[in-house]
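thought: fold this chain, then report.
action: predict
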Amino acid sequence: MLEIGDFRAGTCSGVTRRSFLRFGSSLPVALGLAADTVQAQTDEMAKAKSVIFVFLWGAPSHLDTFDPKPDAPVEYRGPFGTIPTRTPGVHFSELLPRTAMRSDRFTLVRTNVGISSSGGHPRGGTVALTGFEEVPEPVQQPTFGSIIGKHRGHTGSLPGFFSLTNGKLTAGGEYIKGDGGGILSRAHDPFMVGCSQQGVVKIPSMKLLKGLSPAQINDRRTLLTHLNADRAALDSGAVRDWGRTWGTAYDLLMDSRARSALDLTRESEATRARYGQSEFGQSALLALRLAEARVPYIQLNYSRDCDAFNPGFEIGWDTHIYNFELLQDQLCPIFDRAFSALLDDLSDRGIMDDTLVVCMGEFGRTPKISNRAARDHWTKCYFSLWAGGGIQGGRVVGESDRTGQEPHSGPVVTTLNVGTTIAELAGVNSQARAEMKVLEGGTVIDELL
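observation:
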């Protein structure tokens, strides 16, 4: 089922009802004008035809997940035990049994570092998604997805960059600045798609145009009459934005293959159940379908808001209180189930080798347990997971010190290096990056390749 605004259209055997849309400023449309055709052809030499960036917004504790310290003092190690993985000598938290059994499919990096001045939300989110600190608009650096989406372009009617969330990522009402096209222009912002716990796919920025019948959809003159009459309801910025992505929205709605990629009812009930009845789980299944459709970049967000307690949003990883309870009861079980299912299906459907999966938060959490029996923000050391797209599985790159406070050995991996490595594997080589003036100063993480 595909839900567009307040309107639902069945997609298993064609559109049973058609609608047109009103677009908010987050998804501008060009009406009566040619679509922006600025795009690069897919680089056939790219190891990764699609990238799935799993963003654990809110920052999970590395000591309680993928870098446990069972021999550290009690004020560091936490209450959870450790379990062996399929990687000899490597142990994860007991909260991640499914992922531990699939460690042979990915490489774990334990020496990611952030920028100390960006240790809060949402500045840390900007660094995580762009590699750079937040700066005043409009000179913000573009997110990794915008870079790859611009270089690789659309896949048929599907945009080159999807962000799977029910709206812009937020931290208690404040938005991440570096979540879109930045200096590359808003034309390269992500196409946002949300997913309910039941697997209903939603495009929140779309609304029905009142008074437009299904029979009038393909009549451009009638369509333009309705749209022109409705312009007064939009701010001038949104009207100007209409000149950019008419083709993206209209073609996606009219293209049966594009609609199919967004239709989770094409998956069996058993498959959908394996991912779990959660927003993240069903979104992970949607990410799989978009990767099958060869969308260049899919940002799979665990939650829209980073906070663990924010009414109206799913729980995020910002666990300043109840860290251990939330990890045990909700966060890790939901992630473990969905992420392991995603790895399985990418492999079973034969697209793991040319789909790059990167999983990380914006930073880690304090190795030393706080006086609230939880963990706070920590930029000096955390983890990332890398699978597919030319990455050899079953390895650990880098080691943190005995209490997980800082890197001890191996490469010090910055988010700029993360973005540069993703871009390189996705076919955006150094020349292309230089021409776009993006990821300047970044280097590839050689130890991963």
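thought: worth noting. Confidence is low (pLDDT under 50) at residues 5-42, 212-217.
final: tokens above.
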